[in-house]
Structure formats: structure tokens, C-alpha cells
Specification:
Layout lengths: L1 E7 L11 E7 L12 E8 L4 E2 L2 E15 L7 E15 L2 E5 L2 E5 L2 E3 L11 E2 L3 E8 L8 E8 L5 E7 L6 H18 L1 E2 L1 H24 L8 E2 L2 E2 L3 H20 L7 H16 L8 H9 L9 H10 L7
Parallel strand pairs: 1-3
Antiparallel strand pairs: 1-8, 2-6, 3-4, 3-5, 5-6, 6-9, 7-8, 10-14, 11-12, 12-13, 15-16
Helix pairs in contact: 1-2, 2-5, 2-6, 3-4
Amino acid sequence: MLTLLVPVINGVLPRPGGGKSAGAILERESGGKLENGTGIFVCPFVPANGTLYRVGILAKVVGIGRHSMALPGQDPASFLMVLLEGVSHARWNTVQFSQGSLQVEGLEPIDFSAMRSEYPVVSGAGWVVRGGYTEFRSLVDIPVTIYGNEIERNSMVELKANLKGLVSMETAHTIEHAMIRSLQTYGLCSARTLQESMRLETEELTWSVEKSMKFAMPEFLGQSQAGACGNPMTHLAQYYMFQEMSEQMKSSNETDISPDRARRVVMSKLTGDMGLTTEPGLRSLQGLKKGMRHDDSLISIELCKRVLSRFPLEPWQ
């Protein structure tokens, strides 16, 4: 049996078990057979490698309307506004282009709740992740919070776990970033996507330290796909930048104000006050670990599973 496949790149997936979400589908790509009750498989498109993630949401159409959009120099484009109701998580086996649209065959429903003891995951369906934070209390108290907005009501939701006894505080901080990245990219955080996202996050954060020091650009610090990292190094850089620009404006006329000079002063004070080396090759790793409170050590798949088992499957649990 073939089911229409709709890729999404904004991470918006309907919550299984009746959650609603709306989206637009170009009519020419709908297969011409959409009506209320039609089954649709919605899964994330991964821009980094141009692939479709194999796990998504099996949904059904519960509302549909036809619209058109004017295009300069072209005929109007006809599209459908579709309201979907989530049924269950599912995994596709094969995908093909049929009847003018992408279709999947061999959909396998997945009950992550029933699999939780062996295959713990965190689901991003039904909500949009906005950020998170790690509380550096002690080795025996490391709360991690991931928060976002529920799709249907736009209300704030969150999920929490205490990673005490499993990992260090620095590793927990990296896990927080990686979970945000995984949920935004795949609509799901599994052990494998968590491990891969931890690797990518530490690479990007290390790059941000190296480039900020090399080019005296403190605004690069802590920037990654998961967002802007809140940590002692970036907070201090922002404070120093505000302080330096304020001093320039107080003591100089407009022609003497120089953001570039302020940036150089900030990076010099930052490395000096935090005791960070400026030696290429060492500064980026030291900045990541000592300045940003992250750990670049990869953790095993088994440990990733233990971490995810501390979190609920979704924010409503």
C-alpha cells in the first residue's frame, strides 16, 4: 500500500494520538487524491545531507482547503492547506515517485512507549523546541531542561531530567545542546542521533572559539545550530563588549568610536581574565572546556540510552 509522503524542514510534526498540525502542500505534488480521511506520512527532511529521515508520523487529513498564490511572470501556483491529525510514529521501508508525488511503501507503526526499556527516545512531535539549560549544581545534582512551545496551543512545555551519577556537568551541558539539535533536525532524539549531535555540536562550538580568537570576533563565541550557548565565556564577552563600547562613547566623539578596537580589547581581557591560552590548536579546546563548560568526549550508545531513559518520552508525561 502506497502512502503520500510529505517532508518537513521546520520540525513541525503532529503529536501521535490525535494532535493537530497544519501545513501547505503544492497541489501538483499531492497526487491529486487528498480528501478527509486520507493517510499521509510526515517525516523530517535533513538539509545537511539532503535525505529523508526514516522515522516520522503517520497522520490523516481532517481538514483541507484549496488556495492559489500569485507568482511574478508565471501562472498562479495552486496549493492545499491541510489540517493533519497524528496517528502514530512510523518508519518507512521504501520510497518512490508515483502519480506525480513521493509515496512510501511498507510503513511500520512504532510504539515508543512500549519499547522504552530497550529503546528510550525523546519525541519532538507536537511541540517545537526553543532551547534549554543545564544547572551546574554539583556532581550529585545536574538538572537538564529542554523547553519549547506546544504546536496546537502555543503554550510553553518542557521536559526535565537529572543526570547525576551518569555524566559530568560539562558532558550534561553538551547533551543538552545535542538534544535540542536532534529534536530540531529529526523530530526525535534517539541514542544514535544524540551521539551524532554531540559530535557536531562540539565541532561547531570549538570552531566558534577558534574563529573568535583568530579574528577577534567575540560575537562568534558559542554559536551553533542548536542556538547561542549560555556559558561563562560568552556572558563575560557580552559584558566586556558593552562595557568597552560604553567607555568609548563616553570619552570620544563619534568618529573615534571603533567596534573593531572594542572587539580586540574584549578578546584580550577575556583570555587574560579566564586564564586561556592564545596558542593555535590549544585555545579552541581550552575555550570549549574551561570557558564554555563543555566536554568534547563522545559517550557510548549504551550511555546515551541511559541518559535518554531519564527523560520522559514527551513533555506531557
